[in-house]
Amino acid sequence: MVIGLVRAKSTAVGHTEPSGNATTLRPQGAPPMKSARVHAFTQRPADIRIEDVPVPEPGPGQVRVRMLCSPVNPSDFHFVRGTYYQALERIIWNQRRSDADRRVCFDPGRKVECPVPPYALGGEGVGVVDAGGGGFLANRLKGKRVAVAGGPPNGTWQEFTIVDAKRAVVVPDGLADEQAAMYLANPISAHVMIREVLQVPRGGWALVTAAGSALGKSVVRIGRRDGFRTICVVRSGGNSAELTALGAAAMIETDHQDLIAAVARLTAGILQGRPETRRP
Q1: What count of other Cβ atoms lies within 10 Å of the Cβ of residue 61?
Q2: Helix H or strand E encompassing 24
């Protein structure tokens, strides 16, 4: 789901110099940039502040991206409220933290730390690579418009952000900024869910809840392309026409339809799924 879009109004920092076919932007005198930040976990969106902060410098294997547009996803507010941090605190490997290392980490090897404020918000977006910290891929990306997957502490709701070069994907010229900004998180999630996890077969059914979200619409598009049918569940009829145009096989509007009865009627009561695999 995407709540909205943040469009940056940044200008070039410093001056420009040609570098092959690319343009390199170099900061001079460290003028500040605008950044949307929180300083502590909070339940109040009003605590998000727009602040002037120094323009960051990329390290080895990283690029600096001059942001053009970034979506506002529900997951962004988990970094505002501390939802991820609080959930991870309860995971077994974080229960075993030592007094010398109180970090909360995403992984059992404790290599990927869950950040804590203060930090910049925003998990993805689109922008132009204006500097690299060295390395083959970082150098090749200079001057390219890229979709980036980031997140706190180096979020995308700011004029410039730093990402690993391998997390920046060049996007086609014909793709609008608003679409390119949502190029990674939802489409990749939809693909992995349908192809790798559920393995929905051609001719099969996929029940899509919250179908009016960006993720739901991605699943509907995949179904139309790959030949499986989607039953889209929405609260009301506000998104039904758009989803039908995208290729939804059926709509269930729960404000006046019973979900279970409607699914049984649409699928003739037949449950289609993968055969269960049993190990000896």
Answers
A1: 15
A2: strand 22-26
**Structure tokens that stand for 121 in this block:** 């918000």
pLDDT band at residue 268 under the 50/70/90 scheme: confident
Cis peptide before 56 (omega within 30 of 0): no
Q: Is the pLDDT of residue 73 over 50?
A: yes
- Contact between 220 and 211 (Cβ < 8 Å): yes
Helix (H, G, I), strand (E, B) or coil at 175: coil
Between CA 249 and CA 272 the distance in angstroms is: 16
Say if CB 58 and CB 64 are below 8 A apart.
Answer: yes
Name the burial class of residue 203, with classes exposed (0-12), middle (13-18) and buried (19+) by CB atoms within 10 angstroms of its CB.
exposed
Token duo for residue 50:
């727009």
Look at the alpha carbons of 219, 71, 63, 26 in this order and tell me if their dihedral is positive or negative: positive
pLDDT in tens, 174-189: 999 999 999 898 889 9
Contact call for residues 207 and 231 (beta carbons, < 8 A): yes
Segment 235-254 shows an average pLDDT of: 95
93-115 average pLDDT score: 93
CA–CA separation, 108 and 91 (whole Å): 9
In this structure, what token pair is assigned to residue 30?
Answer: 């460290």
Q: Which of 66-70, 71-75, 236-240 has the largest mean confidence?
A: 66-70
